[in-house]
Amino acid sequence: xxxxxxxxxxxxxxxxxxxxxxxxxxxxxxxxxxxxxxxxxxxxxxxxxxxxxxxxxxxxxxxxxxxxxxxxxxxxxxxxxxxxxxxxxxxxxxxxxxxxxxxxxxxxxxxxxxxxxxxxxxxxxxxxxxxxxxxxxxxxxxxxxxxxxxxxxxxxxxxxxxxxxxxxxxxxxxxxxxxxxxxxxxxxxxxxxxxxxxxxxxxxxxxxxxxxxxxxxxxxxxxxxxxxxxxxxxxxxxxxxxxxxxxxxxxxxxxxxx
Length: 258
Prior knowledge:
CATH superfamily: NAD(P)-binding Rossmann-like Domain
Distance between the termini: 37 Å
CATH class: Alpha Beta
Number of helices: 9
Shape: globular
CATH topology: Rossmann fold
Number of strands: 11
Strand order of the largest sheet: 3-2-1-4-5-6-9
Largest sheet: 7 strands, parallel
Order of helices and strands: EHEEHEHEHEHEEHEEHEHH
Helix content: 25-40%
């Protein structure tokens, strides 16, 4: 029988997709959430990576920890809590961590925290695998939806490579079932698209017709995006396109995050 895999953030966007993928593959799965939950085929355990409560119980006896939880303010601290609990468990589980393409190039606070967490894991002595992925469809949609509410839609001259969370989940599950590999190749969506192109797709999906206006975006972060630091065109491994993602959600009556 396969070793049990712990999925942190099991009730989150990525965690849910990973848990479903593991269940479909009939892999024993334990899922960590801050609140008590129950679902068929999943052993749920309650714990909080911010305080450490219940984390020692969560990691006990598992062969692999697939870390899907994230904390925009305390990413490094929560990863350190997980690493220390895994180390003290005596099991030395394989730790699989998902990071962001461009974490080492874009001076965003969250990206810098992700890079610091990568370094913490790599220097921990734990068997590990680190995967960087491009931005999820849902994040790109949320960013564009805010601009699309305006009478005229401002679009900076950036490019994105949005990826479906289910494609990332499939890759993570494959890595979790293999041997630790350290930092692996980045994982990107199937298409590199301009912001204007993606905005047109979102407007079309919502039944709106608005004028797009190119806008300058000064600063180091903007220069990084303009240079494509957030892209992995040589690893366009995802399958689901932005249009397919939008179509699955039907024709919304309002532009909002789902």
